[in-house]
Amino acid sequence: MELLAQNLLNGLTIGSFYALVALGYTMVYGVLKLINFAHGGLFMWGAYLGWTFLTILGFLVARTGPFALVPVVILVMITVGLMGVLLERIAYRPLRGTGRLPPVISALGAAFILESAARNLYGASYQVYPTGVDLSGRFNLVGNLTVSYTQVLAVVASLLLMALLYIYVNYTRTGTAMRAVSLDHDTSRLMGIDVNRIIGIVFFIGPALGGAAGVLVALHYGSFNFTLGWTFGLKAFIAAILGGIGNIPGAMLGGLLLGGVESLGAVYLGSQWKDVIAYALLALILIVRPTGILGERVAEKL
Amino acid sequence: MIADTMQPAAAQTGAAPMLEVNNVHAYYGHVHALKGISLTVGQGEVVALIGANGAGKSTTLRAVSGLLKLREGEIKIAGKSIAGVPAHDVVYMGVSHSPEGRKIFPTLTVNENLNMGAYSLGGAKAKIEGHRDRVFALFPRLRERRSQLAGTLSGGEQQMLAIGRALMNDPRLLLLDEPSLGLAPLLVKTIFDTVREINKTGVSILLVEQNARAALRLATTGYVLETGNIVLSGPASSLLADERVRKAYLGEG
Ligand SMILES: Nc1ncnc2c1ncn2[C@@H]1O[C@H](COP(=O)(O)OP(=O)(O)OP(=O)(O)O)[C@@H](O)[C@H]1O
Ligand SMILES: [Mg+2]
Prior knowledge:
The structure holds 2 protein chains of 2 kinds.
Chain A: H1 2-32, H2 39-56, H3 58-64, H4 69-92, H5 101-122, E1 127-128, E2 138-140, E3 146-148, H6 149-171, H7 173-183, H8 185-190, H9 195-221, E4 223-224, H10 228-243, H11 248-269, H12 274-288, H13 296-300
Antiparallel strand pairs in A: 1-4, 2-3
Chain B: H1 2-5, E1 19-28, E2 31-41, E3 46-51, H2 57-64, E4 72-77, E5 80-81, H3 87-90, E6 95-98, H4 110-117, H5 125-138, H6 140-144, H7 155-167, E7 173-177, H8 185-200, E8 204-208, H9 212-218, E9 221-226, E10 229-235, H10 236-241, H11 243-249
Parallel strand pairs in B: 3-8, 3-9, 6-7, 7-8
Antiparallel strand pairs in B: 1-2, 1-4, 4-5, 9-10
Helix pairs in contact in B: 4-7
The complex binds adenosine-5'-triphosphate (ATP) and magnesium ion.
């Protein structure tokens, strides 16, 4: 029972990371109906840039410990966000109106470029986050149930970012315009909405969240290498599909669900079955609900 | 030949007309959809554009609102050319387009749809609320439904929302594409009455309609479009009396 609870807790932690990364897939899909396969690469770059900034700001880490994470995460979000904007300008915008396949190929190309660049610059071996930022304590919950400080920090940070995004998308003028653009570009233009500007904002926010997730994931696992984008990024993509791609609450739900189910599977079948469970869950949900859990309307538009 | 003898009754009061379309050609790929059309909407005027399915009526409106680029010709809003102006900026020249098929945002609430109609007004809260009140006065039903998702409205209510949304930015020129399509006769009358009311507040209107009789009764000037060409134009009352219009578009003879 305790093992189950402990695993579930870890699963939800991983799930909140999945969710944070899944948001980038789903937001871009919303406005462009494009699966941005380069998103996993941007997320991985978040982890590398976090490592780089922490190394450069070593004096800050030495003095403030984990608090150095605050400026580092913000810096990473801005940098990866700008990378996202650049990616859209270079790899997607010139292909607008050429059909659905060319941008997907371009996305795959961009994903390989991001991955190779990281591998060439940082090497293939695992990077370890500086020890100074690692919060090495654990909270004791009921019984023997514990969570690490890092885990709590990472979960709180990702939930906070998701809450901010939710408020932004649902209660601001630009957020509403984003939802309008997801539904219909031409009609949005008739409202006076600059569709390209909104797409630019989406390509900043999605990757910025992915970048933050990169830092949090690296912090949680302690080490990572360039394969993070494909391994973890692909899971997050599954989470987006599970929740209903294009649907923002769906991405959050899909992430938490996937993390939770994976951890349950790890308890009952063994952790080597994790990926099997993830893909089986995907297949199962798509059979029952081809549009994902919350994604009916957007998918219908295809 | 009526086109040669009848001049559009644009209200020429010295100021530039609200809308001038001069010799406009437009294509969809290789489809030559507009073959050199010209029309004028005077300040404060209602102009009806009628024609069979596929004649190019919606295409004309899309050209005016900047969604469709011209191959040739010129479009002027109150004397200013829209050449090179992106569609989302044409709105700022005072044009509002209620497109064919309503095109409301189904997963946004009624209020959010209206907010998007006022997007071009930025953060001018007081102004926006004033316009919202005016829309609710025209369509009280929308006030009752304001927190409901637009996609759950009935067809008629969606049409009200489409028109209301187009009014939210207080346009000088309103482009209406088949506002009465698919509505019950009683509601059609309401919509036409509302269009008249909107016009009384000084808004110039270019109205595309299948319901040619109602449209020509409301309009001062009418144009008849056939496969991308204007084949007839003149005072709406003359078109209503014209033999060919009666036969082809009013279902008489
Ligand atoms: N997106 C498009 N791609 C290709 N051809 C198009 C497109 N939209 C319209 N057309 C063609 O352009 C011509 C004019 O179409 P348009 O929609 O303007 O007609 P309409 O007068 O509004 O007709 P209706 O009364 O049926 O709405 C038609 O022949 C149509 O097939
Ligand atoms: Mg039409």
